[in-house]
Design goal:
The protein has 442 residues and is of the alpha+beta class. Helix content is 40%, strand content 24%. Bound molecules: guanosine-5'-triphosphate. It catalyses: 2 GTP = 3',3'-c-di-GMP + 2 diphosphate.
């Protein structure tokens, strides 16, 4: 092209250079679509779309994506202006690499009656990002409004409810009138969230960015559910603004989760045959009590119980009957001791009872009573009456004992002594049994 003015020629050079290097596709075209000039990036975007790679006419090249582009241009009657702005063109059925554009954006400007300028760019990634953002937004929206076991609200600096999502009614049973401007202590059973405790929790959340607590919560009708409460400041943590701005509170009903955790705990800590605590649960509890005793001594005793001649019961009535006797013994021990006492099966026909707060006399008295009870009754198993007895050894914590094993060994030595002296009796540990390794009599 020959230009009259040399300065203009330089500008034209610069413009051409710019068009070639531009990071978007640029095309100059006539009103009938004929391409006057195209930069390499635009050619790269258009070639896979155009039939036979023909890049002489933009309308033809984009016919599959915007069939009415010629029509839009023809209908644009103003002398110049934007014919279409960032129109998204989904590209389908393009074979080839995974990187092939899937979404193009087209902007078409009418420069004058003779010329138009089109800008074409690959916006695949941008659109994907927007979709991901929209999905995130939808997810948060679902969380905020849709899930049945969550409710979300904002609190002011004093912990009073300011706004809430609709599920507050579903989770807590409270309606708008009963929550607005009320302290969030309203969601806790009476007396369990004092103003001081609430202030502590708010301060904790402001300081560390969040505060989580789990426990009983209360519905509007007074019924309880197991809930977890997550409190977080609306502002960045550890600033004065955090405390001034207020908080978000998410309450979640986790009753189901708690039930399954409880069921799991029961299955791990219970004896499968008798349902009482198992060996592991016993040692956990006993270890705790002994540690507590070492810090602050108070009575703590232990009774070790062993069914007498149990082998004979199995041999005479069968293993299943033996099992029934073990269940009977476990139930008898549970009934004889207090709720706080831990009744556990150590294995086989051997049981143990941990008695916090009971001294040696008290523990021995309870053991004697249960021993008499067992001996006085028969167990009915499939029509047969089975009589059995137990032997028990009793020991108590005292200075010089600093672990569970020693306590158990003392009770064990006393129990062996009971077997040795005729069974169906209770023996308390004393120093005469120190170091005793009494073999069980045949
Ligand atoms: N039915 C049943 N029997 C069990 C179970 N665990 C252990 N046993 C039996 O309990 C019996 C224990 O026998 P021994 O240790 O000889 O003691 P014992 O016969 O009770 O005699 P003493 O303890 O000396 O009075 C064995 O025959 C075991 O097979 C169980 O879970 N169910």
């Amino acid at each position: 092209m020959q230009l009259a003015h040399p300065g203009l020629e330089e500008e034209f050079e610069a413009l051409t250079q710019f068009l070639y290097m531009a990071p978007i596709g640029l095309v100059q075209l006539r009103p009938d679509g004929e391409i006057l000039m195209i930069n390499p990036l635009c050619a790269q975007l258009l070639i896979p779309l155009s039939p036979r790679g023909d890049l002489s006419n933009l309308f033809t090249a984009l016919a599959d994506l915007v069939p009415d582009l010629a029509h839009q241009v023809a209908n644009f009657t103003a002398r110049d202006g934007v014919v279409c702005d960032a129109m998204q063109l989904p590209v389908r059925g393009l074979a080839g690499s995974r990187d092939a554009p899937r979404m193009l954006s087209l902007t078409l400007l009418k420069l004058d009656d003779e010329r138009l300028m089109a800008m074409l760019s690959d916006v695949t990634q941008q659109v994907q990002r927007e979709q991901a953002l929209r999905q995130n937004h939808a997810w948060i929206h679902t969380l905020a409004t849709g899930l049945t076991d969550y409710t979300l609200m904002t609190l002011d600096a004093q912990g009073r409810v300011q706004s809430w999502n609709p599920s507050v009614k579903r989770v807590t049973g409270h309606g708008r009138a009963s929550v607005v401007n009320q302290s969030c202590a309203l969601f806790y059973p009476e007396g369990t969230m004092s103003p001081e405790r609430l202030a502590d929790r708010l301060a904790d959340a402001s300081r560390s960015g969040w505060s989580l607590d789990e426990g009983w919560r209360q519905h509007a009708d007074g019924s309880r559910y197991w809930g977890s409460c997550l409190l977080a400041p609306l502002h960045a943590p550890d600033t004065q603004a955090a405390a001034d701005q207020g908080f978000t509170l998410i309450i979640r009903d986790v009753s189901d989760q708690r039930e399954s955790t409880e069921a799991l705990r029961r299955s791990v800590m219970s004896d499968h045959l008798t349902g009482v605590a198992n060996r592991r649960a016993f040692f956990d509890a006993a270890e705790n009590e002994v540690q507590h005793w070492l810090r602050a001594p108070r009575s703590l005793s232990l009774v070790l119980v062993d069914a007498d001649h149990f082998k004979r019961i199995n041999d005479a009535h069968g293993h299943a009957a033996g099992d029934a006797v073990l269940r009977h013994l476990a139930a008898g021990l549970k009934a004889a001791f207090r709720e706080v006492d831990v009744v556990a099966r150590l294995g086989g026909e051997e049981f143990v009872v941990l008695l916090p707060g009971a001294n040696l006399d008290a523990a021995e008295g309870l053991a004697r009573r249960v021993c008499r009870e067992i001996a006085s009754r028969a167990v009915e198993v499939e029509g047969s009456l089975i009589r059995y007895t137990i032997s028990a050894g009793v020991a108590t914590m005292e200075p010089g004992i600093d672990d569970v094993d020693t306590l158990v060994k003392r009770a064990d030595a006393a129990m062996y002594a009971a077997k040795h002296s005729g069974r169906n009796r209770v023996v308390r540990w004393d120093t005469s049994l120190r170091g005793a390794a009494v073999p069980r009599p045949a």
